[in-house]
C-alpha cells in the first residue's frame, strides 16, 4: 500500500482515540516533546545542516535559506512554544450550549476535534513542531507535508516527536510526516477526503492558491494581507503617525503589516509631508497617488496595481481619498479581508468603519499588527484565516475543533 | 458581459448594503414576498404547469414530477415559511463575546453575514423561496441556480420576489436567478471565488459530489445520511421498537431516517423476531446479516454493500453485533457522520456512544429523525451539513453567518 493511504488510515484510526484522550496525557506528550527536542538538538541541527547545504548547492539564497535554517535559539523557541501550548486550556469537551426542547429532548453542542488535519507547508521546519503541538492539544491527528528543502530536518524532528509520543502513550499515527515530497503525492493528498478532514496550507501565495484551486478536502485558507490604515480627517495625527509607522515598519514581512495608507484630503496637506519623511527615514519606499505627489513630490508614483499589492517589504502605497466613503470603498475593493484600521476621533466614522469594512479584523485607533493569536489572547495559532467559513482571523486551538450535537432522550419519537 | 459575472458583481455590491440593513426592513421584505406569492399564485402555477408538461413530454415521471409540481397548498406553505423566518430573531450584529487585553485593546467577535451565498439545486421550486428567505434574513445576497426542469417556475417566482424586494426597498441584486441552466455555466459558478463566498448544493448525491469535487468556492456539504440505530443489550426493548419504527418508517425518503439497525447479540434472540415482524407489517424490506437470518429467516440476506447504502426507502439493513465496541466501530466505519442513535438504560454505554461516535448528531434513547432545524429549535434550515467545518448538523440562520473581529483601541501599537 502506498505511503499516503497507509498514513491516512493510521491517522483516521488515531483520531478516534485522540478525541477522547485526557488533557493530562496530551499535555504530558507536549512536555516530553519539548524536553526531547532540546536533548536531541545536535541530531536535528546535523540534519538541518544537510538541508541548508543542499539548498546552497542548488543556488538558493537569502530569505529562503533563513527560513530553512535552524540553530540552538530556534530549537529552544520551538521547545518553549510546546510548553506554552501545554499550559493552555484544553478546548475539547466543552459543552458550548445546551437546551431543552418542549418534547423533553436535551440538545447540547459539544466541542470535539476536527479529526485529521493535513498541513502543507514550505521550507520552515518549525512549522512541523508548531503544527504537531497545536493538533495534539486540540485532539487532532495530523499529516504533515513539508517542503522538499527541509526533508532531512523534518525527518529528524519527527523521529524525536515519535519517541516522545510513544513514551507518553499517545496513539500511533497521531503525528505523521509524508516523506515522499513529490508534486504528485501532494496533489493526491489534496483529494484524500476519505482520511483528511481539513487542509491548512502555510506558505506563500502560490502554495495557498494551488491548495485552494486543487483541493477537494475543505481548506482553511491562511492568507495574504493587503492591509490598510485610513487616516481620517478627524484623526489625532500624532497617533496616526505612530500607528502607520508601527503597522508598516515593525515587521514588514508578515501578513498583518500595512501595505497602503489612505489619507483623508482634509488632513493630507498637514499630515503627509511629516509622516512620509518619517517613513522614508525608516527606509520605507513611498509610492504615492497623484494627489499625494502634488503635496509631497519626493516619492515614486503609484501605479493602479499598487493598490492590490502585498509588498511584505519596506514599501508603502499612499492615496489621498475624499473621505470615509471613498476609504471604505477602496478597502472593500482592494483589500484581502485581513486587517484594516481607521484612525479617527469621530464616533460616527469609527462605527461606520467597523460596520462596513469586510475583513477578519477591523481596528479603530490601533495598529493592524495585532491580528495574531498571541495578541488576541488565544495563546498560539496555526495561521490567520482570511476566508469566511469556519475560522476567520487567528486560527487557534478552538478553531481546530468543530462541534457535535449530543442529544439526551427518554424514548422520544417524531 | 456575461450573466454570471454581471450577477456576481451585483450580488457582491448588494451584500455590502445587506450586511448593515435593519431587521425591520428585512422582515418587511419577507412579509411582502409572502403576500405577493399568494397574490400571484396563478402566474406561478401557470409557469409551473409548463415545466411539468415539459418534463412529462421528456418521459420524466414519479418522484421527480412530484418534486417539481406546485399547487395552491405548496405555495401557501412557501408563503407561510417566509412568515416564520420573519418571526425569527435576526442573527446579525450579535457580539458573541468581547474581552479586554492587558494593553487595553477591547476585542469583540461580531456575527456578520457571510456575504454572497450560491445555491445549486435541482427540480424543487420551493428551494428558490426557502433559500431566498433564509439568505435575506441572515443578511446575505444569494445567487440561485435551480435545475433546468424548473426554470419557468423559478423565473415566475423570482419575478414575484423582485417586485416584493423593490417595494420593501431592498438592495438590487439581493436575490438573483441564473437563467442559463447549462452545465458550462454551473461549472463556472463553482469557480466564482471572486463573487461567491460559499456554495450550498441541495439535491441528490450526484449533485453534491459534483460540487464538492469541482468547486473552488468553499462548500457547505449537505448530505447523505446512512443513519444507524443501535439496540444495546441493556435497552428497554419496547422503547427500542418504537424508536426504530419511527426512525425507519415515519419518512423514509429523508436524510435523518435510519438505514441500518444494529442489535446487541445479548438481546437479538428476544428482540429481532418481534421487531422485524412489526417492520415488515409496515412494508419494510429487511436485509439481515447471517446471524439475523439464523434468528429470523423470513428476510433477505444483506450483502457487504448494504452497510454503506442510504436506501431512502422502505428497506432496513439489520446486523447482530457483539456489543457496543463492535457497534461503535461499525458506525464510524460505515456511517456518513449524520445522525446515530443508541437505545440503552446503561449509563456507561450511553456516555461511550456519545463520546466515541463521530457524527453531527448523536442520540441516546431518541429517534434519529429529530436532526432538523425546526426540531432543534432553530426555526428553519437550509439543509443538514455532515461536513465538519463551519456548520455541522442543521444549517439555520446562525450557520449562514460568520464572525468578524472588531477592535477598539486608543492608539495601541505593537
From TrEMBL, chains A, B:
**Pathway info:** Amino-acid biosynthesis; L-proline biosynthesis; L-glutamate 5-semialdehyde from L-glutamate: step 2/2
Task: Quote the InterPro entries the UniProt record gives.
Answer: Ald_DH/histidinol_DH (IPR016161), Ald_DH_C (IPR016163), Ald_DH_N (IPR016162), Aldehyde_DH_dom (IPR015590), G-glutamylP_reductase_CS (IPR020593), Glu-5-SA_DH (IPR012134), GPR_dom (IPR000965)
Sorted alphabetically, the Gene Ontology BP terms of this entry are: L-proline biosynthetic process
**Presence of the UniProt keyword Flavoprotein in the record:** no
Give the location in the cell. Answer: Cytoplasm
EC class (word) = oxidoreductase
Q: Which family does it belong to?
A: Belongs to the gamma-glutamyl phosphate reductase family.
Q: Provide the protein name.
A: Gamma-glutamyl phosphate reductase
